[in-house]
Amino acid sequence: MVDFSLSDFDRAVLDGVAAEARVGEKYARYYDEHEDEVLPKSFPEAAQFPPIQQRLRGRPRDDTPMLLLQVLMRIEREAHCGVPLRQAPTALGNAALGAAGTDAQKARWGNLMLAMSITEPGAGSDTKAIQTTARLDGEEWVLNGDKIFVTNGVRCDGAIVWATVDKSAGRGGIKSFLVLKGTPGFELVRKEKKLGIRSSDTAAYAFRDCRIPRDHLIGGDEGVPRGEGEGSASYKGVLKTFNMTRPFVAAGGVGKAIGAFRVARDELAKEGIAVDFDDSRHARSATAQTLLELEADIEAATLTVMHAAWLASDGMPNNLEASVAKAKGGEVCRTGPQRAMDALGAMGLSHDYQVEQYLRDGRIADIYEGTGQIQRLVIAREILGYSSAELT
Amino acid sequence: MNFSSNDTDDMLSETVRRFATEELRPKLREFEARRSVARDVQERFESLGLAAIDLPEALGGVGLGLSSRVLVNRILAEADAGAALALDRFGPAAYVIETFGGSDLLERYRDLLASRPETRLALLIDVDAGTVLEGPVRGEAAWIASGNADVLVCLRRDGAWVMESGFELEQARGAALHATGASRIRYGGAPAHVWRDSTLAAQAWAKVRLYHAALIWGVLVDAAGFSRRYALERVAFGKPIAHHQALAFLIVDMEIAVERVGLLIADAARLIDAGMDGTGAAASAFVDAVEASRFVGPNAVQILGGHGFMRDYPVEKAMRDSRALGLLAGGTDAAQDDAGAALAPANPMEFAA
What we know:
The structure holds two protein chains of two kinds. Chain A is α+β, with helices and mostly antiparallel strands. Chain A has eleven helices and seven strands. In chain A, strands 2-3-7-6 form a four-stranded antiparallel beta sheet, with no helix packed on it. A three-stranded mixed beta sheet of chain A has the order 1-4-5, with helices on one face. By secondary structure, chain B is an alpha+beta fold. Chain B is built from twelve helices and nine strands. Chain B has three domains: 7-87, Butyryl-Coa Dehydrogenase, subunit A, domain 1 (Orthogonal Bundle), CATH 1.10.540.10; 93-99 and 117-196, Butyryl-CoA Dehydrogenase, subunit A, domain 2 (Beta Barrel), CATH 2.40.110; 199-352, Butyryl-CoA Dehydrogenase, subunit A, domain 3 (Up-down Bundle), CATH 1.20.140. Classes of the chains: A alpha+beta, B alpha+beta.
């Protein structure tokens, strides 16, 4: 039977996460206004809160799948602007290393913070169009090219960098490489100036005859497959990473919509405008209607995210559901803060309230890790039964 | 019926476009950062006669009417809506002064603005004001689109007031329209002028709404145009992204939204210039402009993808500015009320209930 309820244990975990997130929220505006600064590894208040591993100790094995709880934790954090009191020691590159690296590579680099560097000025959604090249020269790979939008690219220890070893081979020629900071020819060009999520650093890289050891090829496979086919293990391995991260990105979007909703609801309540859920439709004010619709939309988006995470945690295919969740999460964090701002009026523009930041921060959720358009393409292929070659 | 523009508007458009393209657009980020427009740009704007385009000629204006004003606002906002607000020191408050105080009072404030180049009028719309207007008026607003003000003009449903002292502004930070500055305002003084007349208030409000709707229109024309041009150049999956139907149809829907906003604004301005009741049409045009901004602003960012999220491109600013403009002029809920009331004029009280 369908059951969306949470155990008391998990509820307590989420309450703890929310309490911690509320403290982190105090720093949100500072880092929004001071984009040049990078978050410290931890804030002083972090000591007041036990690490998440400690909170989860003794969790019943038959409880809600862990992936689901993690998604709910993400929603809770983002609903309070998502500035963590402790920075995660890993980044998306670590997930790629875990998915596609050899055991020796995982052991060697697993304790580093690794960013993922795919996007280029001329290649975003179309990842196979990347121009960065890797050429084997003796016992070294030589990398040349430009990368942008590298999340955590400033503070990471190194990055998993996508490059083609054979442009004529299409995506079959694309491999990923580990490049450590400080390697000659690897330049951190700039920290990007963004519309939102400014507490998260985003970098642009340049590789100019950057030489890395031969064994920095992720997966360790030095063969170069020819022609269009299934693609290399690295390409597919890394793409799989996104199947797992999509529900989390969607959860981030949902969280921001919740954050905006809460600000609007609480500020309006202070002015004596409360939403009465029992009012009939014709007796409801436009503001109440706006908040009710927003809440319903958030609830729907949350369920799509939970469904996608639940499937993944059970080992079932979730390609369709993860894209549905991402598309819906990307949408609700656009329309949600917009509606919340309408309810608040011009005060919603002030930095005194977080709602305008949710709008700016949330705008990225429908863009990164697969735009809403790409998600719709994935959904269309799934429900219409087309391959990626048949429907582009 | 005639959809074509006249020679006066064509000449006006050309002048404004040249000014906006040469003086405003290249300094988009500079004006944002300094929270104001450079003095020499302000002077050039005023020397071109663009400051009082729709005020009567007797008051040093050009007397061209609201239709010309919306045209000017659109073209300025195509370059930078924040700068457009900053440059107009009289601002939409002029409509309140003109409607209630007539030419004498308008002339007084015109002289005040002429004598002090830093002076400006700030407009506050108090939609929910319920108290009787007697004695000192107290209140505050968390965000108004003005970095400074010497005169505070407040428009309410039942009238208006003007305060020349007894209010204070505190610099505020906000999401958008940075070039015009922003303030938190607290007021508690005795108004220099108080008027009670809901019919006049509705007339003034109609002009205020069109003033802002035209700025939204301009931002959206630019956002839609910029993202459309980008979509023709940016290649993904072997062809320009505009050739992918998902984006092609999105671009079309954005164009339709912008087009319909322009027509509604032009129609409402024409009604008012002809001395007819344009309150319902102006409210509808404002509502539609805001609806369009919710769609066009974020999707201009979407079409540029990650690039749209970066401040290297102007579309993120368009998204912020158009969203902010829609929260001014009293917002959409009030405009919807007024648009609805205009559709059911026989018994407004029954309609409201």
